[in-house]
Amino acid sequence: MSDASRRRPVPGIADDGDEFHFCSTCAFSAACLESGYDKSLLRDLHVLVEHIGPFHEGEHIFREGDPFTAIAAVRSGTVKTYVTDHEGREHVQGFFLPGEVIGLNAISQARYPSNAIALDSVVLCRFSFPNIAALATRMPGLQQQLFKLLSLDIGKAALLSGNFSADERMAAFLITLSRRYSARGFSPNRFLLTMTRTDIANYLRLASETVSRVFRRFQDEGMIHVERREIELKDRKQLETLAENVLRSI
Amino acid sequence: MSDASRRRPVPGIADDGDEFHFCSTCAFSAACLESGYDKSLLRDLHVLVEHIGPFHEGEHIFREGDPFTAIAAVRSGTVKTYVTDHEGREHVQGFFLPGEVIGLNAISQARYPSNAIALDSVVLCRFSFPNIAALATRMPGLQQQLFKLLSLDIGKAALLSGNFSADERMAAFLITLSRRYSARGFSPNRFLLTMTRTDIANYLRLASETVSRVFRRFQDEGMIHVERREIELKDRKQLETLAENVLRSI
DNA sequence: CGGGTAGTTGAGAGCATTCAAGCTTTGTGG
DNA sequence: CCACAAAGCTTGAATGCTCTCAACTACCCG
């Protein structure tokens, strides 16, 4: 995390005496609560958590090459991860919504292999990785959850590896966004695109103009209604059909 | 593993009394030996290993949807993982050389999300995942190694996600193959392409004709010499330059 | 109101694909 | 041992999807 001044607990969420809370968005809470650990272990987990932020739009959370010490779950906002190549082209690797974990691909090299930037106002739960790994040896449920998260990310990364058309990739993008928002209790059919067309393009390996054109065509065909950053999925079925090939590999 | 009859230890490699060996290709051996664990823990690890195979060319190691119970390190040969979409197009997700681990992306769903097939004669080290995970709680070095392997695969999958030209992708493919062979003690500049042009194409998201054409062009420009499945890298520097953008994100 | 960023739309170009044909190697059976 | 088939590979020509370039519009914010 590049900005040390932000590593303070968020007011109102810090420890208050003997009580401790799990933030509802943290990816570890559910798994560990379910596993029925005793209170002391849960407290061990809890004290690892550091609520940091808010980061404002455009602010970096970490940069490529920064030493890796912690993973973080998004509490609110959207995070984009990306790398820049020698020609200055930006390659977006992923968007992270509330509840999702960033930094997992940094473990193998002990450095962040990409940049992470806030697309809007972002608050994170930060977990020291050495500490959570150590704790995981005492909490098999936590270890299992970490393995799962890592494994899931391998599959996610494979999403875009396939040889698909612009339409297929865009449909898959919209459907996965919808599912992820839906899983967090947001509307599955109406949501805000927190990223620019260019970001979407760099993520889907398209030109931003192509993103515009696909949006327009999808709208003309009645599949979506899009206006600036607001989007409504109007024909989910058709979108799912288009996305089918892309998503079956997850 | 789909073929139960192959789950026998390979003759000559099984336990012989009190002695136990690590097979040199197993990704876990080095890390765990280094960590200086006592003999009983190392034996625990060793008894988890099951040497299976050989699988012949074209034989499936697991299929999409098979229940996930084990990960496996390739001992010898090459494994291809792939999925097939609704139009019957094959999407190759990866090639696995000796020392590399397959099945890591199956953890999150408890099912293999893709097919794995032997490209030549393949022998594997199989590890029951529940067992190795349980052991990892007692061997932090092993847990760390598992985290690393998983994290590494996330990065690998991102390799092909970028928006790169056929030349860049092919160069990156050849360079990574070279590095991986080299890391295993094989020649870095002369090796056998154990996969077909079509497999390479499906992996790099190209048409097989394009793969042919790029090979020819690379050869005409003196970067490689390729004849059937035999390839020699003649101008590594130029290849690395081409691959630079693709590889910097790993 | 003006500047800047984001987004849209059109026209032309280019890279990769598709279609098609021919070549090479390998394996099989007469 | 040869013929033949099948699969893998190569090469050429034409099409097409997506990109690039360019101009224009809409919106936001000082």
Give the fraction of residues assigned to helices of chain A. Answer: 25-40%
Count of spatially separate domains of chain A: 2
CATH topology of the largest domain in chain A: Jelly Rolls
Largest interface: A-B, 46 and 46 residues
Alpha carbon gyration radius of chain A: 19 Å
The CATH level-2 architecture of the largest domain in chain A is identified as Sandwich
Question: What is the N-to-C order of secondary-structure elements of chain A (H for helix, E for strand)?
Answer: HHEEEEEEEEHHHEHHEEH
Q: Which residues of chain A form runs of ≥5 with pLDDT under 50?
A: 2-21
CATH superfamily of the largest domain in chain A: Jelly Rolls
The secondary-structure class of chain A comes to alpha+beta
CATH C-level of the largest domain in chain A? Mainly Beta
Strand content of chain A: 15-25%
**Annotation field: number of helices of chain A:** 8
How widely separated are the two ends of chain A? Answer: 30 Å
Mean pLDDT of chain A: 85
Question: Could you give a short account of the major beta sheet of chain A?
Answer: 4 strands, antiparallel
Placed side by side, the strands forming the largest sheet of chain A appear as 1-8-3-6
Protein name (chains A, B): Helix-turn-helix domain-containing protein
Pfam families (chains A, B): cNMP_binding, HTH_Crp_2
Keywords (chains A, B): DNA-binding, Transcription, Transcription regulation
Organism (chains A, B): Steroidobacter flavus
Describe the structure in your own words.
Two copies of one chain form a homodimer. The first copy, chain A, folds into two domains: 4-153, Sandwich (Jelly Rolls), CATH 2.60.120.10; 166-247, Winged helix-like DNA-binding domain superfamily/Winged helix DNA-binding domain (Arc Repressor Mutant, subunit A, Orthogonal Bundle). Helices cover 39% and strands 22% of the residues of chain A. Chain A has eight helices and eleven strands. The first copy, chain A, has helices at 29-34, 39-48, 129-138, 140-159, 166-183, 197-204, 208-220, 236-247, and strands at 49-55, 60-62, 70-76, 79-84, 90-96, 101-102, 115-118, 122-128, 190-192, 224-227, 230-233. In chain A, helix 2 packs antiparallel against helix 3, helix 5 crosses helix 8 (236-247) and helix 6 crosses helix 7. The radius of gyration of chain A is 19 Å and the shape is globular. Chain A starts with 28 loop residues before the first helix and ends with a helix. The model of chain A is unreliable at 2-21 (pLDDT under 50). Chain A binds a DNA duplex (30 and 30 nucleotides) through helix 7. Chains A, B: Residues 164-237 form the HTH crp-type domain. Chains A, B: Keywords: DNA-binding, Transcription, Transcription regulation. Chains A, B: Residues 55-116 form the Cyclic nucleotide-binding domain.
